[in-house]
Write a structure and sequence with these properties.
Layout: H1 3-6, H2 9-12, H3 24-50, H4 55-77, H5 80-106, H6 127-144
Length: 145
C-alpha cells in the first residue's frame, strides 16, 4: 500500500464526496422512509378495498409514495447525481403538495377522500409541505460542502 492510498482524501487536498444521509440528512432519510411506508400502505389498502370511491385521491397518494421512496433512495445512495435527482424530486413533491393542497381547499368536492397532500398535508401535521422545503435546503447545502 502506497502512502497516497493510506492518506485520507482531506489530507491530500481532494474534495471528499458529501454523504447525504449523515447529520440532518439522516433525519430526512427517516422521515422520507416513514412517509414512503405510510403513503404506500395507505394507497395500496385504499385501492384494493375501495378504488371506485376515490380513484384520484388514491392514485395521488400512490404517486406521493413513489416520490418519497425515490427521494429516500437518493439520500441513502448519495453522490452528486443522486443529490441533483433528489433535489428535482423534492421540487416536484413541493409542487404536488401546493397544487393538490390548493385544489382540495378550492374544490373539496373533487376529492371523495383525502390524499397525503390534501390541505397541504394537514392530516400529517403539515409535514408533507415542510419536508420538501427542508429537503431542498439540505440538498443545496450539500452541494457547497
Amino acid at each position: 500500500m502506497t502512502e497516497t492510498e493510506r492518506t485520507p482524501a482531506a489530507a491530500t487536498g481532494e474534495k471528499q464526496p458529501f454523504d447525504l444521509g449523515t447529520g440532518p440528512g439522516r433525519v430526512l432519510v427517516w422521515f422520507y422512509g416513514v412517509f414512503t411506508v405510510a403513503a404506500a400502505s395507505r394507497s395500496i389498502v385504499q385501492m384494493i378495498l375501495d378504488f371506485g370511491r376515490a380513484p384520484l385521491a388514491y392514485v395521488l397518494s400512490a404517486v406521493a409514495a413513489l416520490v418519497y421512496g425515490f427521494i429516500t433512495y437518493s439520500l441513502v445512495r448519495g453522490g452528486e447525481k443522486a443529490r441533483r435527482t433528489a433535489l428535482v424530486c423534492c421540487a416536484a413533491e413541493l409542487l404536488g403538495v401546493l397544487v393538490v393542497g390548493t385544489w382540495t381547499m378550492a374544490e373539496p368536492s373533487a376529492f371523495a377522500d383525502a390524499t397525503v397532500w390534501s390541505d397541504f398535508g394537514m392530516g400529517y401535521l403539515f409535514i408533507p409541505v415542510i419536508l420538501p422545503i427542508t429537503g431542498m435546503m439540505w440538498l443545496r447545502r450539500a452541494r457547497t460542502a
